[in-house]
Amino acid sequence: MNAVVTTLKPRKTPVQVRSAATVETLHLAAIQVLLQEGLSRCTTTRIAERAGMSVGSLYQYYPNRDALLAGVLEKHLEGIADAVARTCHEHRGKQLSQMGSAFVVAFLAAKLRDPREAKALYAVAEERGGAVLAARMRSRIEAAVAAMLASAPDVRFDDPAMVAKIALGALVGPVQTFLKEHAPAQFRARLERELLLLVTAYLQAHQFKPERPRTPAAIT
Question: Which of 8, 169, 206, 209 lies most in the core, judged by the most C-beta atoms within 10 Å?
Answer without folding.
Answer: 8
